[in-house]
Amino acid sequence: THNQKSGVAHFTAEDDDQAMIMIRELMSFLPSNNMEDPPVKVCTDDLCREEPKLDEVIPPDPNKPYDMMDIIMPVIDNNHFLEVQPHYAKNIIIGFARIAGKPVGIVANQPAVLAGVLDINSSTKAARFVRFCDAFNIPLITFEDVPGFLPGTAQEFGGIIKHGAKLLYAFAEATVPKITIITRKAYGGAYDVMSSKHIGADYNFAYPTAEIAVMGPDGAVNIIYRNKINSDEERQKAVEEYRENFASPYKAAELGYIDEIIFPHNTRKKLVQALEMTQNKSASNPPKKHGNIPL
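RESULT FIELD:
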């Protein structure tokens, strides 16, 4: 119940021995207190390792799902990932890993579940994790493929706006290094929320397959050219023009929203470099008693 439904529990153990092993593993990523840096281990994995198979993970069809874990696992040290709340709000992935021996917190949309949309549960799940990592000086790496927020009256009546704002607030207030990789879709307000440049991310990468726009090409064309398109051929042409002129990662890079467009097989090397560049980051929030998080 609390692992799958309420989200109160973060880990599941079969017995006391397994629980102790999981606790020991979790503690290995954390510093002794909030004034220390998390423990760095000697890295036995190649820092410049390329992963050619990553170039084939994302399907040519932008509406076809894939497993984000197929991108996360090859780029972290020794393919070792401690996932947090794996059975709750599966449309977003959170957990701890190491890159170049340094602990990192990973937040990732999961296109294989609900197309990776943000909803109430996934927003609060990720927001709590981001706050936790920031409290213990753990850098954040975000893998983004988000088509938007989940529509529907149940979400609206449940307050999706305020819950989505929790994740935006958490990323915006976090002072640890923040690195984002846009693998495919980055649409609308959900794009902003997922550690975008607009809310203070330090380094933002995008794959050539990335689509960064207010909405997807199909939806935009349906609205803009609703009374002007008479054939499927004209519609497809309009979709491609929108994708090239408004949703291209190169356009986003031109506007300063993306720092670098990279090939997927270079992901690990680029993450190592970005962490190295931001390891001495020093940032502080305005002096105040506490922030007014949207609860």
